[in-house]
């Protein structure tokens, strides 16, 4: 049996992260007004500049690269990237939340500040609000299917909800 790795991802109800176009354009302005910007920032490198990931990314062709998305190994890593309550609150207000995926180890590449992974066929095991308050965990509160329905999140991306 393949080992599953837990990854946290910031995303909206469509599964897009905050750095996806066209989402990012609007957030970029607000991030800049807050003094938060990842450009040339050693705390927030692009995957192409991330130690432990960059060499892997350069081996991927364009279509293969599209399968790999960014996330975080831990909530601490998330809080380090989005390092103020104000930024996390903005993400929350813009409809972003954290989804914890459990993904086969072969579909995961870790760097010091972020993780790349292939979401397809991953299991969803928990949610948190982007402002860092709990939503739901497996075995607590609502069934994960109900959480998906209440957030209008589609399972049409090859995902399974873990009971």
Brief overview:
The protein has 163 residues and is an alpha+beta fold. The protein has six helices and eight strands.
If you had to describe this structure to a student in words, what would you say it looks like?
The protein is built from six helices and eight strands; from the N terminus they run βαααβααβββββαβ. 27% of the residues lie in helices and 25% in strands. The two termini are 18 Å apart. With 163 residues, the chain is α+β, with helices and mostly antiparallel strands.
Q: What are the main properties of this structure?
A:
163 residues; alpha+beta; five-stranded mixed sheet; three-stranded antiparallel sheet; 8 strands; 25% strand
Describe the secondary structure blueprint for this structure.
Blueprint: E1 4-11, H1 23-33, H2 54-57, H3 62-67, E2 68-71, H4 75-81, H5 85-93, E3 97-104, E4 108-110, E5 115-118, E6 123-129, E7 134-137, H6 144-150, E8 160-161
Parallel strand pairs: 6-8
Antiparallel strand pairs: 1-3, 2-5, 3-6, 4-5, 6-7
């Amino acid at each position: 049996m393949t080992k599953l790795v837990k990854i946290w991802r910031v995303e909206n109800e469509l599964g897009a992260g905050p750095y996806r176009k066209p989402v990012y354009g609007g957030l970029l302005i607000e991030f800049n007004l807050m003094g938060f910007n990842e450009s040339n920032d050693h705390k927030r490198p692009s995957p192409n500049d991330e130690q432990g990931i960059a060499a892997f990314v350069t081996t991927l062709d364009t279509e293969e690269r599209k399968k790999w998305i960014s996330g975080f190994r831990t909530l601490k890593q998330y809080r380090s990237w989005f390092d103020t309550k104000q930024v996390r609150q903005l993400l929350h207000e813009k409809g972003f939340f954290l989804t914890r995926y459990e993904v086969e180890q072969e579909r995961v590449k870790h760097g010091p500040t972020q993780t790349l992974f292939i979401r397809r066929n991953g299991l969803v095991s928990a949610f948190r609000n982007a402002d860092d308050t709990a939503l739901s965990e497996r075995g607590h509160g609502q069934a994960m299917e109900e959480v998906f329905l209440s957030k209008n999140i589609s399972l049409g991306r090859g995902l399974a909800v873990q009971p």
